[in-house]
């Protein structure tokens, strides 16, 4: 547990976040371009959160030596992770038939100042309606896998944030 409590100033946690996010994005593109399973609105929002997490982790690499920028990067990463958890919960609702609010369209709701689907259509263009996510391995669906990733990210980030602020409090005593 100490390894996670003291992780934020080190390089490996930031690289791990980038590797996981890029790996999940690559997997999504494999299913899109090779297998022919096209992304729905929720899938695209999942990609947005993962891309944001990778970008914040990239920034974290450069600010990890500075206390407050590092803390802001950790908090931003945690916020993006919670947004990913929310989208994953909606995907699980579609997979298992609970809590589906029916809010799945064929047009993304990106702000006019950031039309990601126009800037990078291969990654962010909605091409299908929402339905159950495909099974990827061991009988688990994409949504199941994302739920596991979310649990891992939330647990690790909570420990890193706790360690980040705990170490400061102990230093002032």
From TrEMBL:
Record InterPro entries: DiS_bond_form_DsbB/BdbC, DsbB, DsbB-like_sf
Lineage of the species this protein comes from: Bacteria, Pseudomonadati, Pseudomonadota, Gammaproteobacteria, Cellvibrionales
Chief localisation class: membrane
Subcellular location: Cell membrane
Keyword terms of this UniProt record: Cell membrane, Electron transport, Membrane, Redox-active center, Transmembrane, Transmembrane helix, Transport
GO molecular function list: protein-disulfide reductase activity
Membrane topology type: Multi-pass membrane protein
Protein name: Disulfide bond formation protein DsbB family protein
Biological process according to GO: protein folding
One GO location term (cellular component): plasma membrane
Pfam family, one: DsbB
Highest taxon above the source species: Bacteria
Membrane-spanning segments: 12-32, 44-63, 72-89, 145-165
Keyword rRNA-binding carried by entry: no
